[in-house]
């Protein structure tokens, strides 16, 4: 688990470093010093919007989302069912650990890894922005809200995988369910953007709950409701996982 997590956490961080260094050395943060007044404001605003879109496209919508999802699908989908399938759960239970302690330990470990990964990426992003003195081109508060949304989205998918892992005794069933849900959600969110007549499909996708491109820090309504839904759904699924695992007949 830790090796896969480390690998899939380092890659986005390296891409972030490459992204900012490339922009810096290519002079992308430079603007015409002769501009002033309204023209200067428009130029900086245009650059701010451009960098925000690039970061959205590269990180929140693709690399920074897909790589953690791979970890979540593989890990959450086999965290319980994988040990049941390999018959190692009996060894753990024979150590006098209760089902409750086993579940809470695994849950805490999974959530902690997701939290640490997203937090590390957020911190590195802030360090890079201030390190190259480009803070005037990025909305720091907006970035923080986006990283929070990314964490909640990953948390929601992990809770789906976790409850599936607690319900099924074979990891292949769990991995199939979480994998299909992730793929369908991603495809529906992409298809919904291709034509206005297909826009309704976005409401069938979990990804819609993290609408990073329309987040406005000055309008809580642009993200708070979706974030609360992701949080409560995650808590509900994790709590349900507890009751499923503690009540089920384990195949030991």
UniProtKB/TrEMBL annotation:
Annotated transmembrane regions: 5-25, 63-82, 103-132, 144-168, 175-194, 224-245
PANTHER family per the UniProt record, alphabetical: INTEGRAL MEMBRANE PROTEIN-RELATED (PTHR37305), MEMBRANE PROTEIN (PTHR37305:SF1)
A GO term, aspect molecular function: ABC-type transporter activity
GO cellular component annotations of the record: plasma membrane
Keyword set, alphabetical order: Membrane, Transmembrane, Transmembrane helix
Taxonomy, superkingdom: Bacteria
Protein name as annotated: ABC transporter permease
Pfam families given in the database record: ABC2_membrane_2 (PF12679)
């Amino acid at each position: 688990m830790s090796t896969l997590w480390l690998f899939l956490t380092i890659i986005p961080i390296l891409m972030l470093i490459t992204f900012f260094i490339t922009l810096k050395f290519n002079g992308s943060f430079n603007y015409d010093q002769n501009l002033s007044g309204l023209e200067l404001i428009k130029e900086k605003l245009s650059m701010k919007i451009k960098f925000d879109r690039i970061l959205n496209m590269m990180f929140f919508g693709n690399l920074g989302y897909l790589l953690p999802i791979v970890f979540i699908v593989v890990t959450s989908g086999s965290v319980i069912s994988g040990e049941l399938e390999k018959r190692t759960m009996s060894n753990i239970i024979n150590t006098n650990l209760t089902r409750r302690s086993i579940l809470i330990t695994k849950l805490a470990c999974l959530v902690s890894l997701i939290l640490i990964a997203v937090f590390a990426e957020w911190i590195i992003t802030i360090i890079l922005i201030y390190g190259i003195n480009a803070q005037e081109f990025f909305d720091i508060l907006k970035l923080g809200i986006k990283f929070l949304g990314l964490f909640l989205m990953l948390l929601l998918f992990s809770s789906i995988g976790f409850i599936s892992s607690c319900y099924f005794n074979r990891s292949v069933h769990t991995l199939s369910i979480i994998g299909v849900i992730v793929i369908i959600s991603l495809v529906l969110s992409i298809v919904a953007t291709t034509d206005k007549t297909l826009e309704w499909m976005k409401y069938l996708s979990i990804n819609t709950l993290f609408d990073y491109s329309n987040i406005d820090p000055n309008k809580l309504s642009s993200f708070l409701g979706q974030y609360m839904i992701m949080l409560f759904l995650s808590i509900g699924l994790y709590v349900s996982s507890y009751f499923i695992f503690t009540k089920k007949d384990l195949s030991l």
